[in-house]
Amino acid sequence: MEISHTEENYLKAIFKISERRNKAASTNAIAKEMSTSAASVTDMVKRLSDKDLIHYERYKGATLTNKGQRIATHLIRKHRLWEVFLVDKLSFSWDEVHEIAEQLEHIKSPKLVERLDAHLGLPKFDPHGDPIPDADGNFAQRSQVLLNEMKPGEKGAIVGVNDHTSGFLQYLDRMQLILGTQVEILECFEYDESVRVRIGADREQLLTKKVSQHLFVQKEIG
């Protein structure tokens, strides 16, 4: 069965929405994710349903079938592996790679993907800290919390972001809040939900809620 690039992108969008919300992806949510109209989504949903790639219930939304899940997961696997390759091997910055990986993820060759994975050393996470599914579609698990959910005195390392926009990633670079950076919560302000943190050994910084709610931290134990 032939699947177009656009159909693949819709399956990936439905996967991501369902993962974030832990429920079916509504037409409006898909339209927002794909930056398109609800009418276009309705047409595509019918096409994907006819191909047995999604289940769709009116007023509830779309969920992936097993077949659709495999396609979406494999697409995500390729995307994130290409991001690792672009950053680690070609020295792209983490804010540059998403759009390029969007193009490369549609390459069909399974042999290329598996050789790419092996060449990169079987990475478990991409440059943004997102888990890379293995060849069987299994995602690596990691204990992590959002920085704005931490309490004063808690420490940890930044391990991921849930905002991949170039502006946000460039801001993190300027603030030296890259993956692996050690942070400690010093104070939480109820008024605006900002937090004062220690970054590394000796630098302090006030972070807004807009920033702290998009940073994943793996907390130190004990």
UniProtKB/TrEMBL annotation:
One of its GO terms (cellular component) is cytoplasm. Keywords: Activator, Cytoplasm, DNA-binding, Manganese, Repressor, Transcription, Transcription regulation. The keyword Transcription applies. The keyword Glycoprotein does not apply. One of its GO terms (molecular function) is DNA-binding transcription factor activity. Residues 1-65 form the HTH dtxR-type domain. It holds the Pfam family FeoA. SUPFAM superfamilies: Iron-dependent repressor protein, dimerization domain, Winged helix' DNA-binding domain. It comes from the Bacteria. It is found in: Cytoplasm. InterPro entries: DtxR_MntR_Metal-Reg, Fe-transptr_FeoA-like, Fe_dep_repressor, Fe_dep_repressor_sf, FeoA_core_dom, HTH_DTXR, Iron_dep_repressor, WH-like_DNA-bd_sf. Belongs to the DtxR/MntR family. In the presence of manganese, represses expression of mntH and mntS. Up-regulates expression of mntP. Homodimer. This is Transcriptional regulator MntR.
